[in-house]
């Protein structure tokens, strides 16, 4: 009895120590975030006004607005989502629902994981060499969106695939038992059940797009209607 109490005491001590470290790390992370955001707001709010948000960026002429950057970012995000989201979701559906387990499937997953680890500068060089030079799209929103689409596809594919694989197999079996076909089961049962994971993949991809648009070097002259 005494030994059991001793073991329980030691377990509680270890658990308490572990939870203490977890809470400390969480508190430190939140505190660092609040400090960074607070510093930016305190030092930056005074310089934000309508003229700064709506003016063109012409530092030589005394105009230093961010309107071209806002428009470029929104256009890039919208076009990239339109291009990458359907391709990524359909690829994830194929990998999780149609592809047979084997070497080919593992190779595709390995390639997808490898693509997600490539530095953004490599995507930028590829996009410039292929879309701008070879395809003749020049330095435009289209070439930037196509480059970003390739960059975020691994995020959409892997996150969506994990969301689809998390749906219980009993959902599919129940739908098939009621007479629904495989495609109907995927469209009416699997995808609605995995909508949360799919939205997460899109949000994560948008986060990376916003963080990587500066690498595309979109100058104010590129803010024009898509050709």
What do you see in this structure?
- It contains 9 helices and 2 strands; from the N terminus they run H-H-E-E-H-H-H-H-H-H-H.
- It has 227 residues and is mostly helical.
- Strands 1-2 form a two-stranded antiparallel ribbon.
- Mean pLDDT is 82; it is low at 218-227.
List its traits.
227 residues; mainly alpha
Biggest sheet, in brief?
2 strands, antiparallel
Which percent range describes the beta-strand content?
Answer: under 5%
**What is the count of β-strands?**
2
- The low-pLDDT segments are 218-227
Walk across the major sheet and give the strand order.
1-2
What class would the helix/strand composition place it in? mainly alpha
Radius of gyration: 24 Å
Identify the overall geometry. flat
Helix content: over 70%
Mean pLDDT: 82
**Number of helices in the DSSP assignment:** 9
Element-level helix/strand string: HHEEHHHHHHH
Please write out the topology.
Blueprint lengths: L1 H43 L5 H5 L2 E2 L4 E2 L2 H32 L4 H14 L3 H15 L6 H25 L3 H9 L4 H12 L1 H18 L15
Antiparallel strand pairs: 1-2
